[in-house]
Amino acid sequence: MLKNYESLAKDVLQSKKLSRINQGHIQKLIESLIKKQEFNKFRLLINQKDIKEIKKNKEYKKFIKNLKKFLHDTYSVYQVKSDNQKEAILDLINKTKDKETLIELHKKMLHTHASSRERQNNYKTVYKQIFEICEKPNNITDIGCGMNPFSLIFSGLTKINYIGLDFAEKDIQLINNYFKLTGKRLGFHGQARIYDIFNDQTEIKTDICFLFKMTDVIDYGSKGHKNTETFIKKIKSKYIIASFPTRTVSNKKMNNPRRNWFEVMLKRINKNFRTFETKNELFYVISDPQSR
Prior knowledge:
Elements: H1 2-12, H2 23-33, H3 40-48, H4 58-74, H5 83-95, H6 99-110, H7 114-119, H8 123-133, E1 139-143, E2 160-166, H9 169-186, E3 188-194, E4 204-212, H10 215-218, H11 226-233, E5 235-245, H12 260-268, E6 272-277, E7 281-287
Helix pairs in contact: 1-2, 5-6, 5-9
């Protein structure tokens, strides 16, 4: 059965849009998704037969369709540029010494991911607003980091220890290459590692935790927002910075971008918060009462 899960994960990774994702992460998703009642027939099928024998079966096709939809909604929808472009930009970043060119290259890298693309011209403002509320940190943990590490050049921070967590294996490799060759030159230390937001039980303990546009991912496939509440409770951080889009998919400004459910939840679990807004994004700066 596990061999079949491995083969299924490898099949999914053949898709160019999904090829940067860690195989182990996809296997865990398969193990989780296959437990759902709607996939009972497929579960029996994959337990009894080799994966090669069932690829034309309608239950197989139904399962693959659902799995790819999940991966599209939580990962590939955020990808803008191709893999080769990311690698080429990084190569130039690691070789460039001219400051202005370096900044422009960082912006180009931020443009390769939908979330960082939207805030690529606002990062200085975002960091300024955050550090007006929080003291400047020694440590930052960034959950679902995407290309966010390339924004640190706009933070004004030095001697910072940054940890980026994501499940895109090739992006993790790219980020670690960046930190190894360029991070020290810019005055900060960092690393990135594979993180499965649905199953990883590693304790998050840091000064500031970034949770940019992640609640929809955390709550994906579940009713309500219990998953987000549980997740936030387990973060051991002086501050959590959570964000939400303020525009619809069609790029129209939301009439009421504040998330009432989120604010009610924060009050219920005894968290303080302050907010600020940029053109496309609403930020919540969250803290425990005793930390203020």
